[in-house]
Amino acid sequence: MNESVTTGNPSTLRTRVVDYLSLERNVSLASAAVFILGLGEELWKKFLPKYLEALGASTGVIGLFGTAEDFFDAIYQYPGGWMADRFGRRRAFLIFVVLASVGYLVYLLSPSWPFVFLGLALVMAWQSMASPAIFAIIGDALPRERRAMGFTLQSILKRVPIVIAPVAGGVLISALGVIRGIHVALVITFALALLTILLVSRINVTVKTLHATGIVGVWQTFHAVLKRLLVSDVIIRTCEGMTGVITILYVTNVQHFTVKQYGTLVAVQMITSILIYIPAGKIADRVGRKPFVIATFLSFALFPLAIISASSFPLIVLAFVIGGLREIGEPARKAMIVDLAQENVRARSVGLYYLVRSLSITPAAAIGGLLWSISPQVPFVVAGIIGLIGTLVFAATVEERYAS
Question: How would DSSP label each residue in 106-167?
Fold first, then answer.
């Protein structure tokens, strides 16, 4: 473990702020990398369904794209964790950023929608492979009682770009058109990826030598409570995955709000998340994590129902506020995963957790696209029901003593 962040004069304002926010050096560097690359990706990420549509893809293909995203998110998680344990956190990060950068170029040069799927396979190296390494760095660098705040910092810096960038992306697209606007955004992202490489090259975390345990052995190390958390998480993420990729289509094509307004709605959602992160993370570390995870899961269930219930712009804004509340217990949930994972297989445990979760929800987006053909409202209603079931499963199966 690296040196404590509380060294020096504890009476100084800087030391108190660093201690309160768990600003350990490696956690800060990893979080800053997430922020900078996210600033580029969020310029175009929310608008990819419109990009696919502009390149000739049908709604069914767009739903399949969401399924492909979930599939890559699944299969990349464990290899990402293995690489972080095998090669070290810094070297693994560098590999992930380089792969994602090649993916940005493929997106940029795609002449038709099938090429975007190829780009997705590369771009997801950062979003998915890097995730276990980020979890592991927080687990390596911070004690148990400060990990929720560590995830809070990482989550805030991940969401701030989603406040700023989609608005800018919406302006670009409105001014230049979908294809040209996203092309400009991709060039910006590639430049920011180079800056991210400089940041992650400064990460320095000492980890134990890779313990020779296969994927089955890692699964056998899972605490029973971690497995129960995983079950409820799969149900909740099925709810999210069923409507995530088609939400922009519903808001713009069915409710007839503009792409620029959609960018504003995404910003509202992220501002809500950011405002609740620090108090929620601090309280969760002190009093227990279960109530916050329940609140998160309930918000996942209500979000799709709120979207289809919105009949005016103020009401759709309220719906996206509810969407922002989905993050109230995310630092607490992530801290639970790290707490329950064994130290010598930490990154691989996180990778395996997300491998199982993402594989399980892979069909959700495609099913949402098929349900859309019945009626655009149907996938949102089904998603809300599934979310309520997942909330009840977590509340009933995960004891408070394991969530503290």
Answer: HHHH-SSHHHHHHHHHHHHIIIIIHHHHHHHHHHHHS-GGGHHHHHHHHHHHHHHHHHHHHH
Quote the tokens at residue 252.
């713009």
- Per-residue pLDDT of the chain (404 residues), as tens digits, is 444 444 445 556 555 555 555 567 788 888 889 899 999 999 999 899 889 999 998 888 888 888 888 788 888 988 998 888 888 888 899 999 999 999 999 999 999 999 999 999 999 999 888 888 888 888 777 777 677 777 877 778 887 887 788 889 988 998 999 999 999 999 999 999 999 999 988 887 766 655 656 888 889 889 899 999 999 999 999 999 999 888 989 999 999 998 889 888 988 998 898 888 878 877 877 777 888 899 999 999 999 999 999 989 999 999 999 999 998 888 888 888 988 888 778 888 888 998 899 888 888 988 998 999 999 999 999 999 999 999 999 999 987 766 55
Are 208 and 33 within 8 A, CB to CB? no
CB 183 within 8 A of CB 110: no
What's the half-sphere exposure (Cβ side, CA atoms, 13 Å) at 29? 19
H runs (alpha helix) in 177-246: 178-200, 215-220, 224-244
Q: Which amino acid is at 51?
A: Y
The letter for the amino acid at 374 is I
Query: By CB neighbour count within 10 A (0-12 exposed, 13-18 middle, 19+ buried), where does 333 fall?
Result: buried
Query: For residues 128 and 77, is the Cβ–Cβ distance under 8 A?
Result: yes
Distance separating alpha carbons of residues 237 and 242, to the nearest angstrom: 8
How close are the terminal C-alpha atoms of the chain, in Å?
22
Q: What angle do CA 44, 28, 186 make, to 5 degrees?
A: 15
Using an 8 Å Cβ cutoff, are 201 and 90 in contact? yes
**Phi/psi at 221 (5° precision):** -80, -10
Quote the pTM value: 0.74
| Residues in Cβ contact with 7 at an 8 Å cutoff, skipping those fewer than 6 apart | none
Structure tokens that stand for 154 in this block: 């990482």
Smallest CA-to-CA distance from 170 within 272, 42, 256 is with 42
Write the Ramachandran bin of 203: left for phi over 0, alpha for psi from -120 to 50, otherwise beta. Answer: beta
Of 54, 78, 91, 148, the residue nearest 345 (C-alpha): 78
